Amino acid sequence: MPAEPDQAMVEEQDGRATASGVSGTDESRYVASQWKLMWWRFRRHRAGIAALVAVALFYLVAIFADTLSSSDPAKSDEKFPTVPPQRLRLFDDGALRLHVYDLIGERDLTTFRKVYRPDPETRLRVRLIGDGYEYRLLGLFPSTKHLLVVDGHERRLAPFLFGTDEQGRDIFARILHGTRLSLSIGLIGVVISLVLGILIGGASGYYGGAIDTAIQRLIEIMRSIPTIPVWIGLAAALPRAFTVEQRYFAITIVLSLYAWTDIARVVRGRFLTMREEDFIAAARLSGSRDLTIILRHMVPNFASHLIAAASLAIPFMIVSETSLSFLGLGLQAPAISWGVLLKAASNARTVASLPWLMIPAIPVILAVLAFNFVGDGLRDAADPYDRK
User: Fold this and answer.
1) Alpha helices (H) along 225-360
2) How far apart (Å, rounded) are the C-alpha atoms in residues 132 and 253?
3) DSSP label at 164?
4) Fewer beta carbons within 10 angstroms: which end of the chain, N or C?
């Protein structure tokens, strides 16, 4: 017996909701907010969920970098230069005990470089929680606790999991601390770009006419200029007397001033379609100011698309900072970022003899991929009723 017309309509709507990523059998999906529908659809994007977890882990590493690293990232140790990565061993004579082999240093008579080989006869126990250099947890609480500490060794406190550089600094600790600068530049830069893109792109799409033409020509001119010369020119204009903090904020602003154009075009396109809607006309008739209409009525209607665009802009910021620092135009020592660490691997001869100096490239690749997958998932979830 054929289904009732009303029942068939409900089943068809259920199928559309399921295809759109809306789960559940109750009626809550029909009255759910845009953000809830977006989350339901995003949950079905497995790569996006995995990437979101990876992004969260990156920021947790940035927050707790001091606790996770046992060596002072800025401290040089002339006793342990160019140490290759050490293997962290789990079992000792059949018993579960973290340890590493001690190192025996020898001089290579060909290169005159000090080389190290593990000494299986001397095993150094590694404790999961131990005391090391003092720092301030979350910038507030003094602490000396670290995750991995070599127990009872008078010369070193940490296993060299990623080796050391030519100055004896622990690369693992420096990568963890470099996460802070590299990721924060991406986050702060995107916030600045988002504000500029909304205001400038919103004015372009809302007012139209000569204002729209002028802004679009400005965007086209900026996008036609190759990025590398722009970065070189702006970075070279920074005073050499800048402190690490001043250079950090200057580089962030430099990257933001170039990245806002993509967001501005997205905002302009949305405003062109929304400015003739009835609710905008009603807001004008009620006496609302233009800025109020833009920020309170128009922007919230496509905030999900802005979030997706912002998440895709963060990888651009990270790669840009890494490229500038790698070229010596961005952050410089004593600042610690992924780009500054990779600058040490810019010499092909150095990389050939010390290949572990390229390890900082791994978190750059992983972070960029994670943010891109999150951005793709958010972009697909921005329209929960899309059946694609």
Assistant:
1) 227-236, 244-274, 278-285, 290-292, 303-326, 338-343, 348-353
2) 36
3) B
4) N
In the numeric block, the tokens 């989350």 are attached to 39
Strand, helix or coil at 191? helix
Output DSSP code: residue 88. P
pTM over 0.85? The answer is: no
Contacts of 229 (CB under 8 A, 6+ apart): none
- Under 8 Å between Cβ of 334 and 312: no
| pLDDT class of 152 with cuts at 50, 70, 90 | low
Look at residue 359 and tell me whether its pLDDT is greater than 70: yes
Q: CA 209, 213, 215 angle in degrees (round to 5)? A: 120
Look at residue 74 in the predicted model and tell me its pLDDT. Answer: 83
The number of folded domains in the chain is 2
DSSP code for 80:
S
Specify whether 158 is located in the same domain as 181. Answer: no
Q: Which DSSP symbol is given to 286?
A: T
Report the C-alpha gap between 8 and 251 in whole angstroms. Answer: 59
Residue 117 CA, chain-centre distance (Å), reads 36
Domain that holds residue 102: 81-162
Residue 287's φ and ψ, nearest 5 degrees, are 95, 10
Cα–Cα distance between 282 and 26 in angstroms, integer? 35
Which value, to the nearest 10 degrees, does the dihedral of the CA atoms of residues 127, 367, 308, 57 take?
A: 0
Judge whether 40 and 23 are in contact, CB under 8 Å: yes
